[in-house]
Write a structure and sequence with these properties.
- The chain is mainly α.
- It has 12 helices and no strands.
């Protein structure tokens, strides 16, 4: 039987007192109140959970400091920004390939051809695309709308207003194997693997965009791991893992292809080092730092 919620709201001073009662070391009360004011006690609670002896009592391990929690929070925020940076580049690249291959292997308005897509999802995807086009204020969209008779602009224009989630759904419903493989081959993977990666990355992107916890999250949708055509990357993944490590491998693999001069690897390793993060809670294997994919001397 459900019960009434009876917990009262507490002010910042009381929040600090609760943390101290549970064993958290707070060296500067004003600093703690400042961050509680701007970050929210409830939001920060996800980051002090790993420091608790057990969740029932909420007691903290000896010598747990507020700064330890804050360090983990800041790391997670910077990790989200770094992940978003890579996902943005991947999204733009796949958009480009989706439009290029559809335009050249079929025609500029291939997205209007129901025969090229899974009929169960094509209408919904097209309807969603129309909505994104209708609310777009982009000059090139207005130009096509005012100049040409076709219901929608060509693929190389509409792809620019697609969200990653919608792009993922369009690729998923794409039927011609040749077209699917032409897109996926750019990234050195099978088309079904790319389909899975796009779905997974669209969910990761939404987590980052909504400022949600990322570092030790267990994902409900895990990416399919490649089994062929991918060289050494096959050995870099952790099978059946729901943590972010495999996601980072995907991002790094794609970055090597679409941005060969990137320094994303260095930035991630430096971020982990600067914040002294226990990477096991992110699904990292013990020997991760020795693995080939993390040891390109130029990046």
């Amino acid at each position: 039987m459900k019960q009434d919620f009876t917990k009262p709201a507490t002010d910042y001073a009381k929040q600090v007192a609760i943390l101290q009662e549970r064993g958290m070391v707070i060296n500067d009360l004003n600093t703690a109140i400042f961050y509680l004011r701007h970050l929210n006690y409830y939001r920060l609670s996800a980051y002090w959970l790993p420091f608790e002896v057990d969740h029932k009592s909420h007691k903290f391990r000896p010598n747990t400091e507020f700064n330890d929690v804050l360090n983990l929070y800041i790391f997670d925020r910077e990790l989200r920004l770094l992940v978003l940076d890579a996902i943005e580049r991947i999204e733009v690249s796949v958009r480009s390939q989706w439009s290029y291959q559809l335009g050249h292997l079929h025609n500029p308005h291939a997205h209007l051809n129901k025969q090229l897509f899974d009929s169960k999802h094509w209408e919904n995807n097209l309807e969603q695309l129309k909505k994104e086009i209708s609310r777009s204020e982009e000059t090139f969209i207005k130009h096509h709308r005012n100049t040409y008779k076709e219901e929608l602009p060509p693929v190389w224009a509409v792809c620019e207003v697609m969200s990653l989630g919608l792009l993922s759904r369009w690729y998923s419903s794409l039927q011609p194997k040749k077209t699917r493989r032409s897109i996926a081959s750019i990234y050195g993977i099978d088309d079904n693997v790319l389909q899975s990666w796009l779905h997974h990355l669209s969910l990761v992107r939404n987590i980052c965009a909504h400022h949600s916890r990322l570092w030790n999250r267990e994902f409900a949708v895990i990416p399919k791991l490649p089994k062929s055509k991918s060289g050494l990357i096959i050995d870099q993944f952790i099978p059946d893992s729901r943590k972010i490590y495999n996601t980072l491998i995907i991002l790094l693999h794609c970055m090597e292809i679409i941005s060969p001069q990137h320094n994303w690897r260095i930035r991630l390793k430096k971020l982990i080092s600067n914040h002294s993060i226990p990477v096991d809670q992110m699904g990292f294997p013990e020997d991760w730092i020795k693995r080939n994919i993390w040891n390109n001397p130029d990046k």
